[in-house]
Amino acid sequence: MILPQDIFNLLHGIFLFFFWGGLIFLVSCVSVAVYQAVHALASEKKRFWASLSTVISAIITTAIYYGTAYYRATHETVYIDGKKQVINIKKEREEARRKSKEQLDMGYSIFHERCKNSGIKIYQTAEDVEGILLLKVRPGGRKRRTSDPMWEDAASLGQGSGQDSIQQFLTYKYMNLDGSIRQLSYVKNEREGVVIENGYQYVDVKQEDGSYLRYSDGLDDSSDMTIVPSPKKLARYAVTYENEVNPEDRKYWVAGTTVKIIDMQTEQLMAEKVVYAFAPEQGKGPHTPWSNLYTCPKEYQFYREIRYFVDQVLKPKQF
After folding, report:
1. Which has the closest alpha carbon to 283: 111, 145, 138?
2. What is the DSSP secondary structure assignment for residue 47, as one 8-state letter?
3. Residues 226, 215: contact at Cβ < 8 Å?
4. What confidence tier does 176 reach under pLDDT thresholds 50, 70, 90?
5. Which pTM value belongs to this model?
6. How far apart, in whole angstroms, are the C-alpha atoms of residue 319 and residue 215?
7. Does the bond joining 286 to the residue before it have cis omega, within 30 degrees of 0?
8. Where exactly are the structural domains of the chain?
9. How far apart are the first and last CA of the chain?
10. Are 274 and 258 spatial neighbours (Cβ–Cβ below 8 Å)?
């Protein structure tokens, strides 16, 4: 991944190349021109000393010009409490780059340490599951504060949000013959070399007021969902999550989340997936910080990793 620091270093190198290259080129041109003029006009005895003094004058003049330009480019006059002060911009920028690198290195260090505890742990599975219960749904839309270092759902890349986090459990799953995932789709389209599995028949979702709604797929080839009040008997197996919002980690744009699958009858933890994320731009790059991440385990934004994780534990009943 190309970081802002890499781009800055490249531009800085290009600037230095043209700066010193231009200086040498200008001095050379001025010296040659003056030498030719003196050689043509001066007498034989005075040509050498006249040429030497002219070249030295050209060098000094060019150095003064470039020195003045460089000083103006690296210093700025400001007024603090009514007093005029000159600030060395170059020094300030170097200090800022140093602090930025230190923060980036610390972020990487924290992220790699947290990743030691990431991954999937499956303790129990269930077959022929018709529906699941979502105890929490990640907020979508305007509630996605992707530029806030303290955003609770920062590590939820690839897990979906809002209505999408419900719909993904109702769609068909297309797989290659080796079992690798290809895509999720609302359309069942048989094709050679592809295995298709349906999703769950319904998803019960807990609402903010404590009530439950049952979501099921609409007509085939449609992304519409049928929504009705859930019956008293809810789905046995529940999916929920807990976000890790550690202020010290968030200073360096490191976030974590744990997805859990629970048997509501026995209250046993069936599986859990721990994900950590690190935003290397740390709010200073051209991208929305929490949309440009390193994650462990590796997460893909459009692959709906949460669906694939739940499928490993709660295997949907096929019909």
Report:
1. 145
2. H
3. yes
4. confident
5. 0.68
6. 18
7. no
8. 4-80, 119-316
9. 44
10. yes
